[in-house]
Write a structure and sequence with these properties.
The complex is a heterodimer of chains A (474) and B (127). Chain A is α/β, with parallel strands linked by helices and 474 residues long. Chain A is built from 18 helices and six strands. In chain A, strands 3-2-1-4-5-6 form a six-stranded parallel sheet. In chain A, helix 5 runs parallel beside helix 7, helix 5 runs antiparallel to helix 8 and helix 14 packs parallel to helix 18. Chain A is elongated, with a radius of gyration of 26 Å. The chains are: A alpha/beta (474), B mainly alpha (127).
Chain lengths: 474, 127
């Protein structure tokens, strides 16, 4: 080993970066160490980027370095601005956005190296073309898929599943075309048409990313983003093969594998096998139409703020089940105020958190922690469900699908089998909602028509404040 | 054990490459060693996070999201070697912008999420 070679020290820096990523993943899976875990990886990333810059300076110090620094400043600036200014409720969109950027970077990097070697007609080997094809295909799918997921979460694309007859056949045909083009790149000797073929393949991969994300309903987006995150990891690993860079291969494979496992774990938490997520368009088709029709004949009961305040104030135990609606209305603080008011009167207040309440697993915990809700008042679904029959009043705030008894009772319901919070087993259920619109999954909720259920319409924040005021008056 | 094998390979495989040969000192092709590194890293990735609580699913996803921003390094290398080929410069530059956005945004968003968890559960935990 040549200890005077700067290359050795660059590689050691990359190795240190890879080690920090491994340590970071371990620390990120434990609540006590998660934050330092993230910082560990950030330090490792800084080391890797610095080593790359040093290497470039040693080898060819010219205007390219300046271009790289400008690019990093632009990208980093955009990332920093968005990540710092975005509302906590919009975090999942940010994850999708940054994931898409990563996928795009992987695809562009693989393409660039491919063109470079094609131009000079060097080192165009079998394994190189396989890695390039995979890096470009997976990176492009991740890029376009992430932006569709972002659009669906943000609402500029309808979150309802977009389906048409023969969709899966069309998607399969696009997939086959991509594989055929990839085989051409791998098998045929490099020539003039390779550039065109690679570009067409990349465009088709972008189309496929859109095509497989569009039919997936908004409620399944967290699983999809996790899957695309895993994809980007794999794309980074293949880019690592292309550039013969171990740090890319290790980091990409780590993220690809852990992301895939995380996707399966999330699917399990929602009782939605990944194949159902990808191929069984959620909340569409005959099932939901049938349940909407059956709901039309039923009536709902509406209560006003004073009635509900009385019910709450004289209860022994109140369970609050928050959903995304609460987060959107930024009602956390008003709700917490109401909860304190009730506790002062001797009412036991608990929060029942469904694992997928909000837009992602754990999202609701983050939002409630932001409103300073004490940690020991938060109960997970498995802990709160046995408590339900002893609960006098359940206050459902902006949650819908996660309390839908159809998931338990109606085998025809698209969400049948998903574990829910059994609010219908409590004595009284108050549903705070803006309107009778169905939830994110786009399906009707029989809970609303139960005799023990009463609706309290209005903006979650205003209604919660009004309730707190009314409880104070009693 | 797994980690040490991985790190050993990670350190020595690329050095053989930079010396301009396609085989390492052990006579194995570099490609083979990179594939070994890849497979070991896959198993390591699965092993490490297999016990993550539901509450941390989102921050973990976001953290791994930031880590794959390592493609920034790849984009930097490619742009640095782009010469005066305008196409390569444009591709590499967009790659660097995207990669840097992934890295910085990913880590900052994850940190903001995890900031919320800094309050430790009260002694005795949930009742």
């Amino acid at each position: 080993m040549d200890f005077s070679s700067p290359q050795l020290y660059i590689e050691i820096a990359y190795l240190i970066a890879a080690i920090t990523f491994i340590i970071s993943l371990r620390r990120l899976s434990n609540p006590a160490t998660a934050r330092t875990g993230n910082l560990t990886a950030a330090v490792g990333m800084t080391i890797a980027v610095a080593a790359t810059l040093v290497n470039l300076v040693i080898n060819n110090l010219d205007w390219h370095i300046l271009l790289i620094l400008v690019g990093m400043a632009i990208g980093g600036g955009i990332g920093l601005y968005l990540a710092r200014t975005v509302e906590m409720t919009a975090m999942p969109q940010m994850v999708a956005l940054f994931n898409g950027m990563g996928g795009g970077a992987a695809a562009l990097t693989s393409m660039s190296e491919f063109f470079e070697r094609l131009n000079h007609n060097v080192n165009y080997s079998f394994d190189f073309s396989i890695a390039t094809a995979l890096g470009v295909i997976i990176g492009c799918m991740s890029l376009s898929g992430s932006f569709i997921a972002l659009g669906k979460l943000q609402g500029f694309i309808s979150s309802a599943p977009v389906t048409y007859k023969g969709q899966q056949i069309v998607n399969a045909l696009v997939g086959v075309a991509i594989v055929a083009l990839a085989l051409f790149l791998i098998v045929v000797q490099p020539g003039g048409s390779h550039t065109t073929v690679l570009v067409i393949m990349a465009v088709l991969a972008l189309v496929l990313g859109v095509a497989i994300t569009m039919p997936i309903g908004g409620a399944d987006m967290p699983v999809v983003i996790s899957l695309l995150n895993s994809f980007t990891g794999l794309a980074a690993a293949f880019t690592g093969f292309v550039l013969q860079s171990n740090v890319l291969v290790i980091s990409g494979a780590l993220v690809g594998a852990s992301g895939m496992l995380l996707t399966l774990l999330m699917g399990k938490a929602m009782n939605r096998p990944i194949t159902n997520v990808l191929f069984g368009a959620f909340g569409s088709g005959g099932g939901s139409e049938a349940s909407t029709a059956s709901a039309e004949g039923k009536s709902i009961r509406e209560l006003n703020v004073d009635d509900v305040a009385t019910l709450l104030a004289y209860a022994n135990q109140v369970v609050i089940v928050p959903g995304y609606g609460m987060a959107v209305a930024r009602a956390q603080n008003a709700v917490q105020e109401l909860a304190k008011m009730l506790e002062d009167r001797g009412v036991t207040v608990k929060y029942g958190i469904h694992p997928v309440a909000g837009r992602m697993p754990g999202h609701m915990n983050v939002l409630l922690a932001e409103a300073d809700v004490p940690y020991n008042q938060l109960f997970e679904m498995e802990e709160i469900n046995p408590d339900m029959p002893r609960t006098d009043v359940v206050l459902v705030i902006g949650a819908n699908d996660v309390v839908n008894p159809a998931a338990r009772n109606d085998p025809k319901s698209p969400i049948y089998g998903m574990p829910i919070i059994d609010v219908d087993k409590a004595q009284n259920v108050i549903v705070m909602k803006r309107s009778m619109r169905s939830g994110f999954a786009g399906i009707d909720n029989p809970l609303f028509y139960e005799p023990k259920t009463a609706m309290l319409f209005g903006d979650a924040k205003d209604v919660a404040s009004a309730l707190a005021g009314a409880v104070k008056q009693l | 054990m797994l980690t040490s094998i991985l790190l050993h390979l990670a350190l020595f495989a690329p050095l053989a490459q930079t010396e301009g040969s396609t085989t390492t000192g052990t006579g194995l092709p570099t490609l083979f060693l990179i594939i070994v590194v890849f497979i070991l890293a896959v198993f390591l990735g699965i092993e490490i996070i297999s016990k993550v609580p539901t509450m941390l699913h989102t921050p973990l996803m976001s953290g791994t999201n930031a880590i794959h921003g390592i493609v920034l390094v790849g984009a930097m290398i490619v742009l640095g070697a782009a010469g005066d080929n305008l196409l390569l410069i444009i591709l590499g530059f967009i790659g660097v912008v995207f990669g840097a956005g992934n890295v910085v945004g990913g880590f900052v968003v994850t940190d903001r999420m995890l900031q919320m968890f800094k309050k430790k559960p009260q002694p005795g935990g949930k009742k």
